[in-house]
Amino acid sequence: MTKVSKKQKAWTIDREKLHGVDEAIALAKQNASSKFDETIEIALNLGVDPRHADQMVRGVVTLPAGTGKTVRVGVFARGAKADEARAAGADVVGAEDLMETVQGGTIDFDRCIATPDMMGVVGRLGKVLGPKGLMPNPKLGTVTMNVAEAVKAAKGGQVEYRVEKAGIIHSGIGKASFGAEDLRRNFDALVDAVVKAKPSGAKGKYVKKVAVSSTMGPGIKVDVAEIAGA
Questions:
Q1: Are 59 and 197 in contact (CB under 8 A)?
Q2: Which of 30, 166, 169, 219 would be 211's cystine partner, CB 3.0–4.6 Å?
Q3: DSSP symbol at 229
Q4: CA of 104: how far to CAs of 118, 139, 147, in Å?
Q5: CA 229, 167, 70, 217: dihedral to nearest 10 degrees?
Q6: Which residues pair with 40 in a beta bridge?
Q7: What pLDDT, on a 0 to 100 scale, did the predictor assign at position 229?
Q8: C-alpha–C-alpha distance, residues 126 and 8, integer Å
Q9: How far is CA 194 from the centre of its chain?
Q10: What average pLDDT does this structure show over 85-114?
Q11: Across all residues in the chain, what is the average pLDDT?
Q12: Which is more confidently placed, 95 or 229?
């Protein structure tokens, strides 16, 4: 028999019931009882097999109420573009020197941006940055000449979403300290982006299941019927 912790006993939800979006968000906030400000997370179970290229779901979306996190941004750029990145608030800027730092095991950033001319250098870091989801990508706006705009977007609530092997997208939509309205705005923005990113190879029901939770809290099932375009 699985041992139930005091925290689990305190959870005030029916794990099998389907909830409306607002009710699910309220319950996730209510069950976030850690000493730190837990992240409110969403899990979307999609009817796709990401092993097939025409069923991959990936993109970026700006959460209107922000993420509640301090995002450290690294930029691979030279000269004037490096200066632009620093002026826009990038935390780490460099070229070959930054490549050597990363190769040495120090990755002091959460998002990585590069100018197109730097991809020859950044490409050598594929085995390091790739598994961490940090490899710059033109489709995600992280390989660009407009580094200032990309840095500001990364700092201003932009999040990347990507379907995992099991067909699930996990993403934070804010902090437990956020107001319910802000969390709902972020929820809608993320779900809307994922629905619009439906790949050509997706057959049958696209959004199968949705759940909301806090970092340490239980998953609260959301009624998919509430989600437009699912």
A1: yes
A2: 219
A3: T
A4: 19, 28, 25
A5: 90
A6: 214
A7: 63
A8: 41
A9: 11
A10: 96
A11: 91
A12: 95
Calculate mean pLDDT across residues 4-27: 74
Q: The tokens of 71 are what?
A: 């995002």
Per-residue pLDDT of 158-183, as tens digits, reads: 998 999 989 999 999 999 999 999 99
DSSP the chain: -PPPPHHHHH--S-TT--B-HHHHHHHHHHT--SSS-PEEEEEEEES--TTSGGG--EEEEE-TT--SS---EEEE--HHHHHHHHHTT-SEEESHHHHHHHHTT----SEEEE-GGGHHHHGGGHHHHGGGT----GGGT-B-S-HHHHHHHHHTTEEEEE--TTSEEEEEEEETTS-HHHHHHHHHHHHHHHHHT--TT--S-SEEEEEEEETTS--EEE-GGGSTT-
List beta partners, residue 92.
74
Burial 214-229 (b: 16+ CB within 10 A, else e): bbebbbbbbebeebee
Using one digit for the tens of pLDDT, what is the confidence trace for 35-65?
889 999 999 999 999 999 899 999 999 999 9
User: What pLDDT is recorded for position 2?
Assistant: 45
* CA angle 212–222–169, rounded 5-degree value: 55
Residue range 203-219, pLDDT digits in tens: 889 999 999 999 999 99
pLDDT higher for 186 or 6? Answer: 186
Q: Is 182 exposed, middle or buried (0-12, 13-18, 19+ CB in 10 A)?
A: buried
Euclidean distance between CA atoms 180 and 24, whole angstroms:
10
**Among all chains, which residue has been given the structure tokens 């806090």?**
214
